[in-house]
Write a structure and sequence with these properties.
Strand content: under 5%
Oligomer: single chain
Number of helices: 13
Distance between the termini: 36 Å
Number of strands: 0
Length: about 375
Amino acid sequence: MWPLYAAGFTTAFGAHGIAANLGADSQDAVTSLLVLGGLLALYDGAEVLLKPLFGTIADRIGARPVLLGGLVAFAFASALYALADSPGWLWAARLGQGSAAAAFSPAASALVARLNPAAKHGRAFGSYGFHKSVGYTLGPLLGGVLVWAGGLRLLFTVLAVLGAAVAVWALIAVPVVPPLPRARQTVLDLARQLTDPVFLIPTSALAGATAALSVGVGFLPVSGAAAGLGTVATGAAVSVLAGCAAVVQPHAGRALDAGRLTVRGGLSAGSLLAAAGLGCAMLPGLVGVLLGAALIGVGTGLITPVGFAALAASTPPERLGRTMGAAELGRELGDAGGPLLVAGVAAAATLTYGYGVLALLLACGPVVAVGLSRRRG
């Protein structure tokens, strides 16, 4: 399992480590905010488009080859800019990294499910999510240190070495998991599966949690600055958010496996906690920022392992790759849609109203889920 956890750390560290430092040390390539936005969107855009595709490929040929190929491609794409150091190759490297992450991320999630019995899915996904959260937390910090020490090329070099090392580790340690025979499925069958509440409810909860997380990371520092807080205080608030999400995930997974937590209870409680965190973010001052960060982090940490464990339990093993790819797509849409929604409302009114609108949507999630479940029943 450790190489799979390392793969989760790699994609998170690569995404946030570079994103947080692109504007600081690449003035020759990032000539405007529009260019910076394009470089940031390139990574996530590749993931949105390609994750379901690579998830389906993993079901056809096996998740292990897709995992290894994605890690090797990530190392190669990172080495491109480390060796070339030109603006054009920076665009190519970010596109390559996003495409590679779209391959090995759903493959790793599928292997987490295949290599663990159903009774331990909660703990396995909790540990996997913990290591991804560590990557998200350490990415901006360690990335900043590396950029300070040797520029953006050093950060890309470290990512190339990291991707190659994890690929070798996975080649040695991850067992071969052959693809399972699959019944033929039509487009109509696929549409029914993707609209089934068994898939739709956990995926929607994961998307909502990721939206809240992205809004917290992106906008809580803005609220702190408006309240007169310095960068140290706002940075600490973001660290509280990421830290709470990381700590809660393994505990939530173990509680799910032990029967102390149900899927419906975990998803509902997580959504309500994240909504409460956004409500606290509407309060002025340090207390509102810290409470908002803590509650959003706890809610996100509760939803993530429960949601993925529920998807794994309701999916035939031969289609785990496609399901995990589609679920990751839902998370990416939440990652992009949450900040866009809050920013749009804030532009029309204020940031406080933006928090309120997203909080209301998250709070309505459990009610909608109950309605969908009753309709399916």
